[in-house]
Amino acid sequence: MKQRIAWITDSTAVVPDELREKYDIHVVPLDVIFEDGAYADGIQLSSSELYEKIDHSKTVPKTSQPAIGKFVELYEQLAEDYDCAIAIHLSSQLSGTYNTSKSAAAMSEFPVEFVDSQIVSYPITTLLLKGISLAEQGMDYREIAATLREEASKNENYIVIGKLSQLHKGGRLSNAQLIVGTLLQIKPIFCIRNGVVELFEKVRTEGKAFRRIMDQLDLARGIHKISQVEILHGNVMDKALELKETIKSKYQDIEVLVYPLSPVLGVHGGQGTIALTWTNEPKSS
Length: 285
Fold this sequence. Notes:
Blueprint (H helix, E strand, L loop, with lengths): L4 E6 L6 H7 L1 E4 L2 E4 L2 E4 L6 H9 L6 E3 L3 H11 L5 E6 L7 H12 L3 E5 L5 H15 L4 H11 L3 E6 L3 H6 L5 H9 L2 E8 L2 E9 L1 H18 L4 E6 L3 H14 L4 E6 L2 H7 L4 E6 L6
Parallel strand pairs: 1-2, 1-6, 6-7, 11-12
Antiparallel strand pairs: 3-4, 3-5, 8-9, 8-13, 9-10, 11-13
């Protein structure tokens, strides 16, 4: 008999309402903490509301993983209707969410397989959809999780930081770095490798930064099969759509999805941030 598998993730993933309803995906929110209290990511605080609050705040808010009780309650509820579950969370190197979820499953004695996505945002959704597809083919939930752990290493991503002032406000840039960076129009490009944020390169001007990440897409395209790319943005839909058009004009066969960064990710990336991400699949022989 086909296993009844529950799917769990956290609010850093991009899970549109239609996907949640179709596949009954359970999303546990992280919190964004301002001086006036904590807000559940994506529930009590939208991406656009986040940046407005930051503009009127003296300090950048902090973020917090979900309390273990939220996961315990969820797993106890799921145990009533499902045989098992697969939980796919943001990188364990960036948040304690993965380990908290794992501890909660042990407490509830509900069989859950865990996948460390080693990433954030839409790539988590990609893993969820691949897992659901494998489940529909009748694969055992343990085998699905093992497959998804291998798939997680295929992601490639580049993040162009928006406002240096937000990094400065959050204590991640000194006064001198802010002044020099602003005067020289420096745009740092970051990437997430093996679950850790790394500086990929510093370039002058935003235009050069976008050309640089397009170079990386071109390079990857020459080696791998890439059928879809995702653009995540920090409240700059116009720039995201412009980048989409650039990609579509060059690669008509690549599907380009555009989504906002979740509020939790917006806290760390800042308004104006653009991320480009894709999965490197092997080319057919």
